[in-house]
UniProtKB/TrEMBL annotation:
Function: Cell surface proteoglycan.
Organism from which the protein derives: Bubo bubo
Mode of membrane association: Lipid-anchor; GPI-anchor
Origin organism lineage: Eukaryota, Metazoa, Chordata, Craniata, Vertebrata
InterPro entries in alphabetical order: Glypican, Glypican_CS
Subcellular location: Cell membrane
Keywords: Cell membrane, Glycoprotein, GPI-anchor, Heparan sulfate, Lipoprotein, Membrane, Proteoglycan, Signal
Name the record gives this protein: Glypican-5
Gene Ontology CC, one term: plasma membrane
Length: 295
């Protein structure tokens, strides 16, 4: 909940930058900002993604907006293909200077610690839930009843067990759980380390709330270099066509390679269905439709 609350605050703070300083692109920038913080959230929760890919994807989406709404506000007919071309060539043109990479560096360490802490907390919850519902043995149940209620037979309803006696009973009952002690101690030490990492120079709150300033500096850099960027972009017409064709054929090849793997799908459906729990593979006998027979 703390992570989610902090992410929402940082996202709103970043969105407000466009609403106050860059209104011509505020509406269109809302989706890239949302995607950035969604990617960050997924990363913290353990998804198979990276901080670098999330940040660079954000700046890829931001560049066409900065170019058409701030650097060349007269452009009103930027085609979808040309917009995609600007996205694909953003890293080569580098319109945001060092600021995009700086943002990756600033976020990476703090988000890594947060990711590890989030996963560690989830693991801790899982362990606690498992041990909380550990079944008691018959011997343990008898020992507990004897300790708690046998005095009642003599009318001693208010008497309580001796500390040493109680400890012996409880230690016997919790012998299997107590075996986790060493690992649990190590786990707590790891949590302490990760928390210290977050609280030190890689504080998550500072890193996330700093996204607004990083984005602002990146946009200002692009605006200051607007004439050079415009000249560079004008030379992209032919390159864009070639690049988009290459992307298309690359995706096509990936699709074909994927489809090749399913070449025998229909021919092997029966084998696939009978390869699971549908059949008795671990038994010496089976049902042949009429009777139980030896395999």
């Amino acid at each position: 909940e703390a992570f989610e609350s902090l992410l929402r605050f940082a996202e709103n703070r970043t969105s407000s930058l466009f609403e106050t300083a860059y209104r011509p692109m505020a509406k269109e920038a809302a989706e890239p900002v949302k995607e950035l913080f969604t990617d960050i959230s997924l990363y913290i929760l353990g998804a198979e993604t990276t901080v670098e890919s999330a940040v660079l994807r954000f700046f890829d989406s931001l560049f066409p907006l900065v170019y058409s709404r701030l650097i060349n506000p007269g452009i009103t007919d930027l085609s979808e293909d040309y917009t995609e071309c600007l996205r694909l060539t953003r890293q080569d043109i580098n319109p945001f200077g060092r600021y995009s990479k700086n943002m990756v560096t600033e976020l990476s360490k703090s988000l890594w610690a947060s990711r590890m802490l989030s996963q560690a907390l989830s693991l801790g919850i899982e362990v606690i839930n498992t041990t909380e519902h550990a079944a008691l043995t018959k011997e343990c149940s008898k020992a507990l009843v004897k300790m708690q209620y046998c005095p009642h037979c003599q009318g001693l309803t208010l008497i309580r067990p001796c500390v040493g006696y109680c400890l012996n009973v409880m230690r016997g009952c919790l012998a299997s759980v107590s075996e986790l002690d060493a690992q649990w101690r190590e786990y707590i030490s790891t949590l302490e380390y990760l928390t210290n990492e977050m609280a030190a120079s890689h504080d998550l709150e500072i890193a996330l709330t700093g996204i607004r300033n990083s984005v602002n500096e990146a946009i200002l850099h692009a605006q200051l270099n607007g004439p050079q960027l415009s000249a560079t972009v004008r030379g992209l017409n032919h390159r864009c066509t070639v690049l988009l064709l290459n992307v298309f054929f690359l995706r096509y090849r990936e699709f074909i390679n994927y489809m090749k793997r399913s070449r025998t799908f229909y021919a092997s459906i029966a084998e696939r269905l009978c390869d699971g729990d549908l059949v008795m593979r671990d038994s010496s006998t089976c049902w042949n439709g009429e009777d139980v027979v030896e395999r």
